[in-house]
Amino acid sequence: MNIRLIISKILFGLYLIFRASLYYFRRYLKGFTLAFLLIIALFIKLYFFPVYIAPDPDQITQKTVFIPKGSSLSQIANILEKDSLLEHKTFFVLLGKISGYQNRMQAGLFKVPENLHPWHLLTYLTQPKLAEIKVTLPEGIQAEEMAHILSENIGIDSTTFMELVYDSVYTHSLGVEQNKLEGYLLPETYFFNYGMNSDEIIRLLVGNTLEIFKPDSVQRQLRKLGMTQHQIVTMASIIEGEVIVDSERVLVSSVYHNRLKKRWLLGADPTIQYIIPGPPRRLLDKDLEIDSPYNTYKYRGLPPGPINNPGKLSILAALFPADTRYMYFVATGDGGHHFSRTAAQHAYWKSQFDKIRREVRREQRRNRYK
C-alpha cells in the first residue's frame, strides 16, 4: 500500500478523533468544570478545615496555657508555638483571619489538647476548657491572708475581696447575720478556675460554711446547747487557734463549754494573740490586761466574733464537744495537750511544761554561743 495513503488515513482518523473529542468536551464542559471545582473545594475543605475525629479520652494529653486579655491572634499563635501546641503559625493566623475567629478567641488559663490541627485548635480556643488551679486555704487563717493567697494563685483583686468581707450589706445578703464575714470563709483545698472573681469565691466559701449548719441534727444540737450559729463559729475559731492534733478538738471544745456553763472566764490564749499586732509570740502578763472585748482573760463569755476562719472539723467540735469534766488544758510541748479536771492537776502539768520551756531556752542559748 502506498505509504502516503496510509499516512493520510492515519491523519484523517486522528482528525475524526479530535473532532469527536472536541464535540464531547464542549458538550460536557460544564459537567467537567463543576466536577473539577468540587474536587478543588473538597481538597480545600479537607486540608484547611478537616473533620474532627475525637480520640480515645484516655489517650488525650493536654497542656495548661495562659492567654492574657487583649492578646492579638499573632500573640496567641506565639504562645501556642512556644508551648509546642502549634507548628504552622502563619497557617493558624491565616485561618483565623479568613474565618473571623480571631475576634472570638478567649483569654484566661486553659487546658489545651496536644496535636490538634490548626483549624481544630482555632475553633477550640473560641470555647476552651478552663484549667483548674489547686489552692489550699489553711484552717485558722484570717481573711486578709486568704485574700493574699487567692491573689497570688488565681489573680483576684485582694482589695475588692477584703471590701466585700467587711461590707455589712453584702454579708447579710449571703445569709450571715453579722457585719463581716471573718469566720465564715471555710478554709480547705479548692480547685478554682483562673479568673474567678471575689464575689464568686466568697459565695462558695461562705456557702460551704453555712451548709454545715443545715442538717436537722445540727439545728437540734444548737437548740440543745442554747447557742447561735455565730457563737458556734466564734468558739470554733478559738478551738482552731488552740489545736494541732485533730483528736483534741472535741476535748478543747469540752473545756470551753464547761467553762461557759460555770460562767468562768474562757481564758483562751488565741483571743489574746488576735488583739496583739504582729505574728504570734509568747504571751506576757501585761498582754492579759489589754482592754478589749476579745480579751477572754478579762471579760466573760465568748468574744464578739470569730478570730479566724475555722475549718469544718473545728466547727463540728464546737457543736458536738466530748462529754468530759475537764476544766483546764496545757501544752505538752510536742503539739498536744494535757487535760485536767482540777486546778491541782493543771498546776502539775503546767510545771512539767515550764520545765520543757526552760530546757528549750537553755538549748537556744547554747546554740547561740556555739
Characterize this entry briefly:
The protein is mostly helical and 370 residues long.
Describe the 3D structure.
The protein is mainly alpha-helical. It is 52% helix and 9% strand. The protein folds into three domains: 61-130, Dna Ligase, domain 1; 132-212, Dna Ligase, domain 1 (2-Layer Sandwich), CATH 3.30.1490; 216-326, no CATH class. It has helices at residues 3-27, 29-48, 73-82, 89-99, 118-124, 143-154, 158-165, 168-173, 198-212, 216-225, 229-242, 249-261, 269-275, 312-319, 343-368, and strands spanning 62-67, 108-113, 129-130, 132-136, 189-193, 328-331, 337-340. It has a three-stranded antiparallel β-sheet, covered by helices on one side. Helix 11 packs across helix 12 and helix 12 (249-261) packs across helix 14. It is elongated and about 125 Å long. The N and C termini lie far apart (126 Å).
